[in-house]
Amino acid sequence: MSDTRHGVTRTDDYAWMRADNWQAMFKDTSILDPEIRAHLEAENAYMNAAMDDTRPLQKVLFAEMKGRIKEDDSSIPVKDGPYAYGTNFVTGGEQPRYFRIPRDADPKDESARQLLLDGDREAQGKDYFRLSGIDHSTDHNRGIWGYDDKGSEYFTLKVRDLATGEDLPDVIDNTAGGGVWAPDGQSFFYTLQDDNHRPSKVFHHIVGQPQSEDRLVFEEKDPGFFMGVGGSLLDDVIYIDIHDHETSEYRILSTSDLAAEPKLVAAREEGVEYSMTEGGDVFYILTNDGDAKDFKIMQAPFASPGKENWTEVVPHEPGRLILSHMAYARHLIWLERRDGLPRIMIRDRKSGEEHEIAFAEEAYSLGLSGAAEYDTDIIRFSYSSMTTPSQLYDYNMATRERRLLKTQEVPSGHNPADYVTRRVFARSHDGAEVPVTLLYRADTPLDGSAPCLLYGYGAYGIAIPASFSTNALSLADRGFVYAIAHVRGGKDKGFQWYEDGKMENKENTFKDFIAAADHLVAQGFTAFDRIIAEGGSAGGMLMGAIANMAPEKFAGIIAAVPFVDVLNTMLDDTLPLTPPEWPEWGNPIESEEEYHWIAAYSPYDKVEQKPYPPLIALSGLTDPRVTYWEPTKWIAKLREKAPEAGPYLLKTNMAAGHGGKSGRFQRLEEIAFEYAFAIKVAGKM
């Protein structure tokens, strides 16, 4: 297939690998073109033969990883009204179970638990099954639960009577995965995905009526925008959130008049983002409006939240990136990142006094879950580091007391003193200091002899946390240095760090990663012939780019669901994510300049004859985000252009999508496979 854009003609010899009926195939894989299926199955057979000698190692790795998981683990239930809601697993179970207990019951008293949804039971007989959770109604009588049984991310919603455990006749197909109850518990709102897999419509469903009779509440006709629907803690408002990667718009619907038209808060302006949370008589609005690059928090009257009524509450401070915010009866809280590390800030709404929840480790991760109730002084957060298992706390915002609720158990044992976590900085090509988080055993020799798994992502402003990973211990225990390169394209060092790794600046992401590899070698942590690079999705694009730019600096590359056919995908506006992705990568259809930005690095287009290292790409047949044909074409082209290098392996999961297998132990099998590849190419089997 040939394509001419902006005077440039490109020929794609592997375009035939894209199924003409891909949209329908995502819902019924049996209709896949037999020639394409045969090709994918042949690739899987080749991959299995090449990895056959690692099978014993994979079993050992899986057993280690499984041994670090408390199989019958249970969450600490979250209080909401007369109940507290939680999740747990049973020994040997793949899927979560959702339960509730009376509000003040002992969480350890299993006899007090009422089982609401058993994921293992619902998944029986299915090759793939993923729950989107269960959301209870305000009166606690019903629950909306959703599932995807193809991996295509088309979710089916059902309504469950929580008293009897029986599902009502309601079945809502092709949703984005969740719903928001109206306060009366008689109806809910959800987003419907169109044929191009875009959540473009919000519907109002009355329990008991067929989906065909649901009322269309709002339709977003610009295919470049995502849309979601949510609710407030006070049940006063339904939020309709419309956004791409740099622009947002909210419409709100008062739950006192469910038949009304949603009310526009502030019309979208290119490059202006905002998000909302309710605070009783006001809304708190997190925004970058007015050149607040690292965001600020505004407030507006509940009755008139238009932009003309916004007033500043928390000012913009360059270098302090505000990530999210929540409001409760007496406190405003937000999660921010400063100097690459997160912290939780608390503000007394009456006095304006602020304080922080901070920690002393060199690198760590915080998770802020807040509370399910508005009138509370107690919020919940989690803490971990590369060496410290996750700790869950309740925190009293008034007294500033924290109470440890739970520490992640590692049944097979874990001594944090056996490991070291560090944060070092690699100087990139233009002088930027790239943070690199490290984990290794305290007895690992730092003389260049250690193998290293170097992970990177670098897109959409997503920061990779320095959190505890029981799986990474399997590499550290084998003498590996496990490293995360916090490259540009994420917000690890603020919003500017993101902007410096997108659009025309995208190549900074790739050069930062290579600089991280250079620094680790220069400092004696590893050597080039011992570094295995890993990244997935947009991080898979990073893997494809560094393979082209510096193949000699990596012993192997693991590219999970890799976005490598960037130019072709961004030129096809029928694909699910293409129009919303243009603000991230550029629009090569409309702009010749942006076409050339992408063409300069698009991994599939830049493959040429050179000594590529051993490489494995992992793919999912029903993946709507990175379609299966991207890694399939890439591997074929690598073999054509550089047949003497490699080898190049492709593993296509024929019954899963973007996230791989859905069960918790099935996922461990996939990680064990990836780590076995890394250990093999590092020569450590």
Automatic annotation (TrEMBL):
Domain Peptidase S9 prolyl oligopeptidase catalytic: from-to ranges: 467-683
Domain of life: Bacteria
Residue span(s) of domain Peptidase S9A N-terminal: 3-407
UniProt xrefs under InterPro entries: AB_hydrolase_fold, Pept_S9_AS, Pept_S9A_N, Peptidase_S9_cat, Peptidase_S9A, Serine_Peptidase_S9A
Signal peptide location: none
Protein's recorded name: Oligopeptidase B
Annotated EC: 3.4.21.83
Family, as annotated: Belongs to the peptidase S9A family.
Broad class of enzyme this protein falls into: hydrolase
GO MF annotations in UniProt: serine-type endopeptidase activity
Keywords (A to Z) from UniProt: Hydrolase, Protease, Serine protease
PROSITE patterns cross-referenced by the UniProt entry: PRO_ENDOPEP_SER
Upper classification of the organism: Bacteria, Pseudomonadati, Pseudomonadota, Alphaproteobacteria, Hyphomicrobiales
Stored Pfam families: Peptidase_S9 (PF00326), Peptidase_S9_N (PF02897)
Record has Protease as a keyword: yes
PANTHER family named among the record's database cross-references: PROLYL ENDOPEPTIDASE-LIKE, PROTEASE FAMILY S9A OLIGOPEPTIDASE
